Amino acid sequence: MASPAQAKKVGIFFIIGMIILGLITFRVEQIGRFFKRHNEYKAFFQGSKGLKSGSKVSLSGMYVGEVREVTVEDGKILVKMGIEKNIPIREGSLAAIVPDFLFGKSYVDITLVPPDRPLLPPGSVIKSRDIPGFSDMLVRLDQAMSSIELLSDTLESAKTIMARLENGEGAMGKLFTDEEIFDELKGAVTNANVIMGKMARGEGTMGKLLDDDELFEDFKETVNNANFLLAKISKGEGTMGKLFMDDVLFDQLTASVENANIILGKLVRGEGTLGKLMRNEDLYEDLQNMMANLTETVNGFRAIIPHGAFSSVMYTSF
């Protein structure tokens, strides 16, 4: 029977042997992959998400190659991949960088498509899709939290509004709690229903307008006449048409208005005979005195000359 020390040595040698066997298996697999022939494909992404040269490339989870190069081109991340030659990559496949949150390594995964799709020739660009990374998830989580906070504030505002409504504060609150306002609103609705009923029965002016065909035809004819007049005006026919369309008449009217403004301005400033008559009080008093003297003279002639003779004198004077 083996001693405990010998059993311990056997166990250690067994563990070391298993580790060596695993390393040899891993290296053989790596060497086998190295000697396999590969086709190069490309894909463009918005971000690398920690992808680097040597990262795994899989086809729906199955290992098919490795990332050869990660560079920047035309403002995007260009990923060049070496995919085993016997693996068919077809049109319609989508490449995505999948973040590995557990081991901190990212890899490229390509989707499978139906076998009736045509093959993509080596060197082609595989269409890509972006999968949110950990940082993107944190940003979205922060946005979601902000939305929740905004929703909470909205709910608080809604509670405040509902409390004010229940207390009868504000116009809406009074509408909900004040029976007098409610009765007035109810009366207004009732009156509106009465008016709508009259209109539906053709009563009143609006009712006849809606229900009376003859009145409608008259209104239609009036509209047609208005359209006819507007058409004549737009063609420059008639006085109004010429006034609107004839530039010469418009210019003459404008000149007349300007002259009238000039004359009114002189009158206001007291210029000219009429202006002095309107502004000069002395001239106005002299004219008033002259009219009074003339009236007194005429009355004197009437007193000393017979009525018929006075008429004859006045007639022969003019």
* Low-pLDDT runs: none
Task: Quickly count the helices.
Answer: 11
**Overall mean pLDDT:** 77
The whole-angstrom Rg is: 53 Å
Distance, first to last CA: 174 Å
Q: What class do helices, strands and sheet pairing give?
A: alpha/beta
Number of strands: 7
Amount of beta strand = 5-15%
Shape: elongated
Query: What's the helix-strand series?
Result: HEEEEEEEHHHHHHHHHH
Helix share of residues?
A: 55-70%
Main pleated sheet: 7 strands, mixed
The strands making up the biggest β-sheet line up spatially as 1-4-3-2-6-5-7
Observed structural traits:
318 residues, alpha/beta, seven-stranded mixed beta sheet, elongated
Structure description:
- The chain has 318 residues and is α/β, with parallel strands linked by helices.
- Among the domains are: 37-131, no CATH class; 137-171; 178-211, no CATH class.
- Helices cover 63% and strands 14% of the residues.
- The chain contains eleven helices and seven strands.
- It has helices at 4-35, 134-166, 170-177, 179-200, 204-211, 213-235, 238-245, 247-269, 272-279, 281-304, 307-317; strands at 38-45, 56-59, 62-73, 76-84, 94-99, 106-110, 127-128.
- Strands 1-4-3-2-6-5-7 form a seven-stranded mixed beta sheet, with no helix packed on it.
- Helix 6 packs across helix 7 (238-245).
- It is elongated and about 180 Å long.
- The N and C termini lie far apart (174 Å).
- The model has no long low-confidence stretch (mean pLDDT 77).
